[in-house]
Design goal:
Ribosomal Protein S5, domain 2, 2 domains, alpha+beta, Alpha-Beta Plaits, five-stranded antiparallel β-sheet
Length: 203
Amino acid sequence: MKDTYRTITKPSEEILYKEKNSKFFGYVFPIQNEDEVKDLLESIKKQHHSARHWCYAWQFGTGQNISYRANDDGEPNNSAGMPIYGQIQSFDLTNTLIVIVRYFGGVKLGVGGLITAYKTAAQMALESSEIIERTIDIIYGLKFEYKDMNKVMRIIKEKNIIIVSQKMELDCFIKISVRQKEAENIKQVFDQLYGVSIKEIDG
C-alpha cells in the first residue's frame, strides 16, 4: 500500500506567462481544506482586482479520500480549470491549490489557445514550487495509568514512534503518529499490553 504523497512546502513565487497580449499570473499554495481556498482566492482577487478571470483548481486528501475542484471563472467550459487541474495530476500532487489570473490583452485566443495558456502557466508555477514527499500517518490515542508509563515509553522508544502530545497525570494520555503501513502492527503491540488502550483518533 502506498503511504506517501507529494505536495508543496510553501506558496510559490509569482510567475508570468504572456500569450498574444494576454497576461497569465500563476500561483501555487499548500492547502489542507476548502476554507483555506476561499481565503487565498480573496487575497488574490484583491491583489489583481482589475483582472478579467481568476481561474483555479485544487486537490486535497489521499487514497480514497481525495477531493478536487476545477473552476473556469467565466472562461469557456473546461478551457481553464481542467487544464490547471491536469497539471496537479501530472505532477502527482495533493493538498495543493493553483490560481491563474488572466488579464485580457484584446486578442481572443480560442479554446485551444486558452487550454494551452492555462496549462503552461500552471506548469510554470509548479516548476517554481518546492515539492516534497510526505508520509500518510495515522494518529492514535493511548490511555493508561501512570504506573504503566515505563512499558509504554519503552515501546515508543524501541519503535521510533513520534509523540504528537502527551498528558501525564494519574491517568495518562499520549497522542502518537504512525506511518500508515506500520499502523496495524503498532496497534497490535499496544493492544497486547495489559492496562493500555489504543484507538485511532482525528489528528
